[in-house]
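Practice set, problem 2.
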Amino acid sequence: MRKKRTNGEKLSFVEVRKLKAMLLAKRNEIISNVTTMESEALRRERTDLSNMPIHMADAGSDNYEIENTLGLMDSERKILVEINDALGRIESGTYGICEGTGEQIPKKRLEAIPWARYCVNCATLSEKGMRLKEYGRGYIETYPDKSIDADEQ
């Protein structure tokens, strides 16, 4: 289902093309970063296979570095999914439309975060653990996300 822009401020073809180029560049950067992190982690594992005794503090530092790298890789992969979704929205003609209100996401926000799927207000509600449910044009009902509460307990 294709959503209509309600505030009349449609992105131009040139603006969409510019934002698509930004998305593709960021995607390539993330893929490169993740590949580098993976190869560094594998290289570190291979060098740690020696028969030399390892001090407990060194092992703790190594484990911290590995956990930190895995966390960074996970964050990068999540952004990569968002970028691929944004590229899909460009192809479907729904790019730049808030998934909560159906209104145009401000151009400044898209320039800062080209993979944004929500306007600032909806993104804030989403980050606070509120699920967004669209009712009609531009009206949003929010309610607590029970899955978030269950994870915190």
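Problem 2, part (b): a different protein.
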Amino acid sequence: MTLTARAVALVLLIFAAVATPVAQPRPDAAKIQQLLIGSYKLVSYIQYDQNGVERKTNHTVGQISYDASGRMSAQLMPGDRPPLPAGGTVTDAQRGAAAAGYIAYFGRYEIDAERGVVTHHVEGALGQNMLGQAMPRYFEFSPDGQTLYLTVKNGDRATGRLRWDRYK
């Protein structure tokens, strides 16, 4: 190969590297994001033990939201949370009991359409142990897109499944 041919090949290679567009979200991920965007009400939260036996949790109230800019937030609480005494002094124990079981966090999310996973990247949370966590959730939608199912896994084993209905 002549020096001129090598120079041309090098220029073309450099041009191809520079001209390559920045990776865009795959159309599937964009389509899923459009379907995901919105706010949902918690319908049920089921946990599975080591043997796959399901148990309904007492988390019966909750909301999860996803927006177009890639941000999300989630809040879940037990429906049987004890109320704080009205107008009186609240003890630390009463505050602790009222907060026990309340799950609240926010952050960015990303979609892996191929794996069927939306990952919540926790930036702020009521529980400090959640901070900085990447929490993958395997998603499914009902055929009409009004119900979102999120499954939590430990390896290949499902440990929880949440059903969320879109607010109308």
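Answer key, part (b): Residues 23-80+88-166 form a domain with the Lipocalin fold (CATH 2.40.128.20). The chain has one domain: 23-80+88-166.
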